[in-house]
Write a structure and sequence with these properties.
9-stranded mixed β-sheet; 275 residues; alpha+beta
Length: 275
């Protein structure tokens, strides 16, 4: 097993970060978590759309050849070397070149690609709680996956310490925006609702895929504001992300949900992917 550090396949125990690493010092960078399905990265174009939008927002200098085609080849090179025809979780981290003070000395990207074989997931529906210890901003950085993930970390810690599988995160307006590592969909009377990007949720790749394909499968979807009160009014809830794709939710705190439409949705998507 190797990691890909700036184009070199090296032993994963090789030190790659100095004391001046800006990702460690300031969270100065972005990451993508992707699913290698034995042959390809699923929704790779959607991951790259989000990544390169973030690189633009953070004013990275891409003049040295850091292109979509270049990073795609580097990701696939590592996947084929490490995993071959096995399913894997792939993480790409991009950070600014070293600098010891807050203002960056340079804006060239440095990248690291890692892979890990996917383990069998627990198929049971998820038990969620609402995390109220901190809120998320709704600014331009909120839709990106930046290297500062402290809020998500303490939210999942809170959930696990209190006997739940995951936690919902509130935005600075007090509305629900996402779970610790997933986007959120709610169902009422056959209509799917999900927080809009203006509510501060990460622009998830699976979220975007569903928004693009589900209307063609006969589903109505609305991007909207999700208040805490709506939790008690919904019939079904499920989470989505690039790795676990769709996971049904059985409860949020003491409110319980059915999983009928979610199950039908999963079957339809599986049939669509299998031709």
């Amino acid at each position: 097993m190797y990691i890909n550090f700036n184009g070199s396949l090296i032993d994963p125990l090789t030190p790659v970060a100095t004391a001046f690493n800006r990702s460690l010092r300031y969270g100065d960078g972005l990451f993508e978590t992707m699913y290698w399905d034995e042959h390809r990265i699923r929704n790779l174009d959607l991951h790259l759309d989000r990544l390169f939008l973030g690189l633009s927002v953070l004013h990275f200098d891409l003049s040295g050849g850091f292109t979509r085609d270049f990073i795609t080849k580097e990701i696939i090179r590592l996947c084929e070397s490490n995993t071959g025809a096995l399913k894997a979780r792939v993480r790409l981290t991009v950070f600014r070149e070293d600098g010891s003070v807050l203002f960056p000395a340079g804006n060239k990207p440095v990248f690291l690609v890692e892979t890990a074989l996917l383990q069998e997931e627990n198929p049971l529906p998820l038990r969620l709680t609402i995390f109220k210890g901190e809120t998320k901003s709704t600014g331009v950085l909120s839709n990106l996956k930046t290297n500062n993930y402290l809020l998500n970390t303490i939210a999942i810690q809170h959930a696990k310490e209190n006997g739940f599988d995951d936690a919902l995160i509130l935005n600075s307006r007090g509305n629900i925006c996402e779970a610790s590592s997933s986007n959120l969909f709610m169902v009422q009377k056959g209509v799917l609702f999900t927080p809009s990007l203006s509510q501060g949720c990460v622009a998830g790749t699976k979220r975007r895929e569903l928004l693009e394909i589900l209307p063609g499968l006969g589903f109505q979807i609305e991007e909207t504001i999700i208040t805490k009160e709506m939790v008690n009014e919904m019939e079904e809830i499920f989470l989505t992300n690039a790795i676990r794709e769709i996971r049904p939710v059985i409860c949020i705190d003491n409110t319980y949900y059915s999983r009928e439409l979610t199950g039908r949705l999963i079957r339809l998507l599986n049939e669509s992917e299998n031709g």
